[in-house]
Amino acid sequence: LLEKALTFEQTSSLLRAPSTQDDSSTAYQYIMFGKGPFVYKLLRDTMGAAKFDQLLRNYLNEYRGKGASIDDFEKLAARVHGSELRYFFARWVEGTGVPEFESDYQILRTRGGKFIARGTVKQNYENLRLPVDVQLRSEGEAGLKTEKVEMEDTSADFNIEATGKPLKVVIDPGFKLLRISSDLRVSSIARRGIEQFKVGNYVEAQQQFEAALKLDRSNAWVYYHLGLLFLDQRNYDVAIDNFKAALSGNLNPSWLAVWSNIKMGNAYDAKGDRVRATGAYKRAQAMGDDYDKAQDAVKRYQATPYDPKERQATAAK
Length: 317
Description:
alpha+beta; globular; three-stranded antiparallel sheet; 13 helices; 6 strands; Serine Threonine Protein Phosphatase 5, Tetratricopeptide repeat
């Protein structure tokens, strides 16, 4: 959900999307139903569960059968919360852009033999106020310890104690926050490419995939979708090159291995190279991975060569 929330996040704010985006467009759907739930969750975390639930009850009671604006909702939220929430609505409802978090910390050893991770959570927006989970991952059975810090501006300090040797500090381990990271930046750009591919905008799709690869040259997921794009355009040699690149990449998620071989086999079949196509299908079969009925596809193509003229689906996953 976070990836989808970020895909078109810069296109329009929650406030403006209903008036600037076609409500049947992917951008509108991702903004309103991808980003929207995250913002509601952030408001709940900011107000506290009890006050948020009271806000919803009051809203229903006061505006049942009536029209209500975002301003009305903000005023009611502030009244229930007991303090203004202008900073929240300006950041998450009226604005675009999401924070990127990082941590700076040191590990200290106590006299009792325990460890303390002492550091600071940092992010790139002024006046950002929200609770942030900070997790210390350590060796041993009690290897995960999570504490909540209250972000009041661009940074917040933390001290987390552990009995085992600390391994790393992770910010927002449960992906509760609407935020960006290096991995999410790549996947959200690639997701825009996938959506463009689905509607036949091949040039824009290729540009998005290539932009994602500039940030992560080992991303098998992006290479795989570039392969699908070129396969759909019957540019078989380039498709094969990208499926090979996917197999040489990070193979995350793992199903990329079996499906890259299947689609590579399709490209070889389309070129009339049945020997290499059969080899690719055999490799896919040997993997045994049946994600999305991969083995049924293998059997089908082993029995009957892939025919691009039949316009078989190369849907993005």
